[in-house]
Amino acid sequence: MPDLMELYRDLHAHPELSFEEHKTAAKLAKRMKALGFEVTEGVGQTGVVSVMRNGDGPVVMLRADMDGLPVVEQTGLPYASKETATPASGVTTGVMHACGHDTHMTGFIGAAQLLVDHKDEWQGTLVMILQPAEELGLGALAMIEDGLYTRFPKPEYVLGFHDAAAPAPAGTIGYTPGYALANVDSVDITVKGIGGHGAYPHTTVDPVVLGSAIVMKLQTVVSRSSSPLDPAVITVGSFHAGAKHNIISDEAKLQITVRSYSDESRQLLLDGIRRVARGEAMSAGLSEEMMPVVTVEEPYTPSTFNDPEFSEERAASFAARFGDERVMQWPAVMGGEDFSQFRRASPEDVKSMIFWISGTTDEMLTALKDEGKPLPSLHSPFWAPDAEKVVATGAEALASAAIDLMPANGG
């Protein structure tokens, strides 16, 4: 642990943005080579694939993500990040591991060390990947499209963990059979209008009024078109139009996030958005060529589905190792994770599970209980998990799961 925590502090202090994880990838690739893995760098731009063959047996893949976020760190930690970068927005910002990917990478290295040290206890092929650009939802797909399942041994099982800002002691393992995280769609609507003077609205078709009608009507897609038993979210996060008090613009722009679980639910929501936008424009009297333009960003982040039986087996094994009080089933969330891509690329052949490890410190739990102080969330500039417990639990959980799936001499 002392060496791992030194690595953690180094990773935390030097985060890199999505698809820019060059130094991080090189640093960790060097460690994997030293452990005896066959290491390939530059997979999916900055991803790293490490393979260790240890006789006949199953192929198990373990994954950690590497990228930081454009967040100015405010934790006050002695090893807080002072890094800056300029993302696609063009605005220079601080960079921080505000989602805990530094704990994921460190636990990943710990698991690799454990599996090398206990090589006599497992038999098969171990594939360990360091994935870029999870925060963009693009890194897993980039690695798959760059031959992850063709250039390297194709896994039968894929496992990964994510730290969590949960109301549970640090080191607690949470798991969710079935749908665990949501489809994430980004939708843009360009609302057209006929501009003019704010004093003479009757001579215009106001895109602000039309856009407002679309925003309100979109709420009925979830409340009246989607089953109340099928979780769904449509949130309009941005509405931009106009430049002056007394000018009616000729255009408004909406930015929307859409969350769902199944492919069918996703399609229902996206079709509903298109229908509402068109219907409200027709009500406003706009011609066919002035209908709103609805754009769905591709690729999107698909929902993460943990194979139920596989997840229950892994949870039972964790409970036997760590104790029942440290392993619990948690509800699904509407956040997104591109870990989903590894199963989705070959759903008939690959079983996968991502699980949570609470990083909530005792001080955070006490403040929550005694003062009602909310826990800092992931992506918060104040997120400083109990890294030692997350790393130790993650390393042992990943390594023990791999050994369970690849027992020596077939068990």
From TrEMBL:
Domain of life: Bacteria
Record flagged with keyword Hydrolase: yes
Secretion signal span: none
Keywords for the protein's UniProt record, in alphabetical order: Hydrolase
SUPFAM superfamilies hit by this protein: Bacterial exopeptidase dimerisation domain (SSF55031), Zn-dependent exopeptidases (SSF53187)
Domain Peptidase M20 dimerisation: 181-278
Keyword Hydrolase: yes
Gene3D superfamilies cross-referenced by the UniProt entry: 3.30.70.360, Zn peptidases
Protein name: Amidohydrolase
